Amino acid sequence: MANETKLPVTRKTLAPVPAQDAWRPLEALRKEVDRLFEDFSGDDFWRRPLRSLAGIERNMAKQFAAVPAVDVSESDKAYEITAELPGMDEKDIEVNVANGALTIKGEKKEEKEEKQKDYYVSERRYGSFERYFELPDGVDAGKIEAAFKNGVLRVTLPKTAEAQKPAKKIEVKAA
């Protein structure tokens, strides 16, 4: 004997999603590919400069731009923020404390130039990021330190002496 349910079961037919809405995330890429094909067609092809593929890369990067992920940890004496910043140097990174907040900024500039007998390639990449953190209560802002080694930034936020005291346990009594 089959199990029966006492709950009413209703089926609702969903309206189909219009085709143009389903492909909207790929629309920018499609337009760029269409422009590339237009560059290679037409009678005046040899007289027009080619559109750079770097333009497509820049447009896609803007849409999917990411800031570096960070790890935040706490010990008895300090908080620590760790950020992986591969390919960057300490001169490209700025750490500031102001108005109860910590800001980590970075800018990466990369230029590549290659000259050979038959061709010449010049590429430039630029990108910047900014992360903002409110300082928790009990941080000694005057003693914050930052160190950068092997592409990893570590910012140490030491706690004040008051914040390092253990929590006081309150006994719960029966009323």
From TrEMBL:
* Keyword S-adenosyl-L-methionine listed: no
Q: The organism sits in which domain of life?
A: Bacteria
What are the TM regions of this chain, as residue ranges? Answer: none
Q: Name one Pfam family in it.
A: HSP20
Supply the SUPFAM superfamilies for this chain: HSP20-like chaperones
Please list the residue ranges annotated as the SHSP domain. 61-175
Keywords noted in UniProt? Stress response
Q: Give the family, as the similarity comment puts it.
A: Belongs to the small heat shock protein (HSP20) family.
Q: What is this protein called?
A: HspC2 heat shock protein
Organism (species): Bradyrhizobium cosmicum
